Amino acid sequence: MILDLIKKRRSVFPAQYIDKPISKAAIEEILEAANWAPNHRKTEPWRFKVLQGDKKVALGEFLSNTYVDITEKPKEIKAKKLIENPKKAAAIIAICMQRDPNECVPEWEEVAATAMAVQNMWLCCTEMGIGCYWSSPGLIKYMDEFFDLNEGEKCLGFFYMGYYEGELLEASRKPIADKVVWMD
């Protein structure tokens, strides 16, 4: 049942990843799931850039160097984490949103559609036993210096992915009844 899969979805971070590659076929399947997200007026605003190998290393170096350059008192531990996390991931997908040039829908709807695409990716990863999480550091506003972004395209974050071992902690939610008003 889809509800069981939704309840099983978790954020799995690079520190939890094991050294096991994700096949190109698996990544393509995850991206295909993203491609079926709902979107208003069929703008299909999601764009993805898959980083593996040396490109992950380059991303980590860019993030760390940018952090050091723009921060008045950079913390060494954060600069190091920005370098190391991309190396730990089997793959990183840059989550981008391409604004409709005609602006036929509000920008927030295109961001929401892209977020739904990411949720589809997350559920697909969960089903495949791949850990993942969406990181959206403040540094994403500098990604046009790293990626060749099209006009109207912006980076919304990074989807880190990797296999992991062991059980994930159970999650809990406050009852839905506390968040719903029924109106007859």
CATH class: Alpha Beta
List the domain count as a whole number.
1
Shape: globular
Helix residue percentage: 25-40%
CATH architecture: 3-Layer(aba) Sandwich
What are the segments in which pLDDT stays under 50 over at least 5 consecutive residues?
none
Distance between the termini: 30 Å
Backbone CA Rg: 18 Å
CATH fold descriptor: NADH Oxidase
The fraction of residues assigned to DSSP E strands is 15-25%
Strand order in the largest sheet: 1-2-4-3
Task: Give the structural class.
Answer: alpha+beta
**What average pLDDT do the residues reach?**
97
Q: In total, how many beta strands? A: 4
CATH superfamily: NADH Oxidase
How does the major sheet shape up? 4 strands, antiparallel
Number of helical segments with 4 or more residues = 5
Oligomeric status of the shown chains?
single chain
The H/E string reads HHEHHEHEE
